[in-house]
Amino acid sequence: MTSVDRAWLRMDTAENPMMISGVLILEHPISIKRLKHTLEERFLKYHRFRQRVVEKGDRAYWQDDTLFDLDNHLHRIALPGKAGKEELQALASDLNSTSLDFRRPLWQMHYIENYQEGAALLIRIHHCIADGISLARVLMSLTDRTPEPKLKKFAGLRKSVKPEGRATSRFLHRLVDSGQAGWQQASLFLASVRHDPNYPLKLAATAGGIAMDLVKLGFAPAEPDTSLKRQLVGRKKVGWAEPLVLAEVKQCAKILGGTVNDVLLCVATGALSRHFAEQQQPVPDCGIRVAVPFNLRPLDQPIDTLGNRFGMVLVNLPIEVLDPIMCFRQVRENMNRLKRSYQAQVTFSLLDLFGRGPDVIERRALELLSNKASAVLTNVPGPRYAVYLAGSKLIQPMFWVPQSGNIGIGMSIFSYADTVQFGITVDKGIPAEPEAVMRYFQESFQALYQAALAEEQDTDIRHAS
Q: What values do phi and psi take at 112, rounded to 5?
């Protein structure tokens, strides 16, 4: 096991199981036999899903599960009566609070019959297997553009994965792109300037920038004492919102002169600001920070191997700024500053270092870093067209990454079929209701969207006069 994957393995705690989880809502019920066939042919191509983790002392490695049986990982259940969204969210909350069985390969799926007119698939995969970007692409490779798959899709692993990477690399991924840009600044630096007479000076400047970001990360102040930072109890509450229309999000970004990601981060900021207002809690003057994963794996490459290949950055959310336009501009400025930093590479290197050292050092470092963020926020791109799983149309997908240390809130943004999905998972020890935050998310977007339209109209009037 790589040192980075081992670092994620050792982060697993009773309060925060290190699982990436997902809910796939399907339009119609599907054949369990066909689902098994799809998993065997596409999911289990990745040998890692047939292996379990073995730990001996300070070592951890992958070992083939000689007793592997798909039935140990795919479970068929049903919700009672005319179950709806509330019951499905309750089940997802319960499963997200339950650790995986370390005696077997670290993943599970629950096929849920009798959900509305169709079905749902709940998925849990341990973070030590792979990062969220990789797993989202793997799970989307189980789907097809049409109800009946084309035979060509089964020709090989590279053909089944690579088109998805091309589709997603252009889609709702500005934040990841900026992370890759930062990584390329470091990893391609030598090749680009090796013949430059000023090479020593540029090398020193790059090394200085990395060192400065490491110092900034280490000496960043702890998060303010708010209700978002409370003692965790290990029980999760999960919720998701009705999707936003991507065309409206793009229109908003274009009017305000920013990116889609700037808009979504601003909307998340507004949702948390509304939470503090509704709870009549004081809002920190300095805002709050969220930990955001930055992908360091090229999106146009097929996933031949799994594992974790990303860093984390701390993004400041100006929840104290109530005006939506001013909030957007502050978020945009914060993001532009991060795009010029090396934070993602620094945190990836720290994970690699922690994974090689004793467990006690990693836990102390994790505690230090988790004190610098109030939540984890992920932004994962999906296909821009509707897809089908085992013949049934995927109506709404949602994914969550785990929180680490003493962080108890995870917010997830996932793009799919010209919509933007938003979900949240909250530890029960934190006084925040997922359904309420989902409502605030919708309200926050509408406030920003209407403000952007009004600004565009004012601009048109000024130009006309």
A: -110, 115
